[in-house]
Amino acid sequence: MILIKGIQIVDGSGTAPYRADVILQGDKISAIGNFPKKSADVVIEGLGLHLTPGFIDVNTDSDHYLSLFTNPSQKDFLLQGVTTIIGGHCGSSLAPLLYGSLESVRKWTNINQINVDWQTFGEFLKIFNRIKLGVNFGTLIGHSTIRRALIGEDFRDLTKSELAVFKKIVQQSLEEGALGFSTGLGYAHSRQTPYGELKELVKIVKDYGGVYATHLRNEHKGLIASVSETLKLAKETGVKTLISHFRPLLGFEKDFEDSLDLIENFEGADLHFDSYPFNVSIVPIYTFLPHWAQNGGLDIMLANLDSEEIRAKILKELPKFGPEDIVVADTQLPDRFYLVGKMIGQIARNQGVSLNEALLRLMMMTRLRALVIYKNVNLELVVRALGYEQALVSSNAASFSENKQAIKHERFFKTFSRFLEIANQQGRPSLEEVIEKFTSIPAQKFGFKDRGLVQEGYIADLVLLQERKVQAVFVGGQMVIKDGKFQDIFAGRVLRRS
Ligand SMILES: [Zn+2]
């Protein structure tokens, strides 16, 4: 039994903090009140501290980078107070895998790192139950993962019978515990997906009370159209909707603000977007190619780059950026690790070529496997957007092990702490509003019935804050972060849709 005495509770509901004693027993919050005479195995003096529910990061990439396997502690999340992460975003998930292929996560990582011994969503969860994680993990199923298993690398509409099979798979996965369904409509393999196909699939998600999360078809010139399409789908199906990593790209701020207006005034379904308070995207390098040059998949993209004539055409269509705007985060290729951390300006200087030519060379040197940190987000505007009622905070990142040859942007380990700091500096949202955004709102959205609040009977996923800094974290009643340090305790669980 753990007794936390005289602590200010920010309970996650958005109401003002109040002072009480809290008793944890097993994995639950067993009592909240005034217990001056109670003794316990562990007593924590709460003076000067806040107690909040554990934070929920609604959009993470730890599954895409396979770091759930290579770094099961996921401690970069725990250290910032995140006790639950949600994966399976942007159309790509680790399950179901009809033929065991992880092809759809290859844009983030080397997929030969692990052995796949599951096919259905249910089999995946069973296996995952045995892996001890530091955080709780739940996942959506990815549209692209299933679609590519069904029709391979073809770029075409589904036949009637393929769509029927697809619907069966979605239904079965939801029954087996998937939290919902995601699309990555901005990526080459999904960009041409017709609205009708999405609607058929999303209707099933709605029937099961799952969440539909979408990486928009177009975040540039087509932003407003993409948001409108998403809102139409939400309205026509009533599905709980989440617009993934919704961010104002430089040069498209006006479109972003207009889209925000549409979102703010939308009625007809539960609607949120998630975003992060940083000025960068982390993207697979091939996404810089013009759309026509991405069609057909990786082999065709590489062939395009190898053709001098096509390369010249691509060069003319690359976006404008400065020498420090692109940094190599990860190359996935051991013989190219020396490029990690290099800025595009350095590569251009070393090779005596223009910035755009350097980007093309980087694509070729890494056979399009590189991930880059791209400074293309308007920070001021994204911070303002995060204040909206519809905004949830997400890292859209992963927790890597220390020995991975990759650059960790602050987004990977500081998203939630940073937002707490920003809110404090600007005086809004209030601490209780920020905590509500981090906890009960996402818990409700994803149907986590006994998480997201400091309330009797709830699971003891908790954070102790001192001056808004994470001092201790509990997962399922166990203190996994103490004095800001990871305790080597793996108390995370697999979360199913309930
Ligand atoms: Zn995405």
Topology summary:
Elements: E1 2-9, E2 18-25, E3 28-33, E4 42-45, E5 49-53, E6 55-57, H1 67-70, H2 75-78, E7 82-87, H3 121-130, E8 136-139, E9 141-142, H4 143-151, H5 160-175, E10 180-184, H6 195-207, E11 211-215, H7 223-237, E12 240-243, H8 253-264, E13 271-275, E14 281-284, H9 291-294, H10 298-306, H11 308-317, E15 326-330, H12 344-351, H13 355-365, E16 371-374, H14 379-386, E17 391-393, H15 411-426, H16 431-438, H17 440-445, E18 462-466, E19 469-475, E20 478-482, E21 485-486
Parallel strand pairs: 1-4, 1-5, 6-7, 7-8, 9-10, 10-11, 11-12, 12-13, 13-17
Antiparallel strand pairs: 1-2, 2-3, 5-18, 14-16, 15-16, 18-19, 19-20, 20-21
Bound molecules: zinc ion.
Question: What attributes does this structure have?
Answer:
17 helices, 498 residues, alpha/beta, Urease, subunit C, domain 1, six-stranded parallel sheet, nine-stranded mixed sheet, TIM Barrel, 3 domains
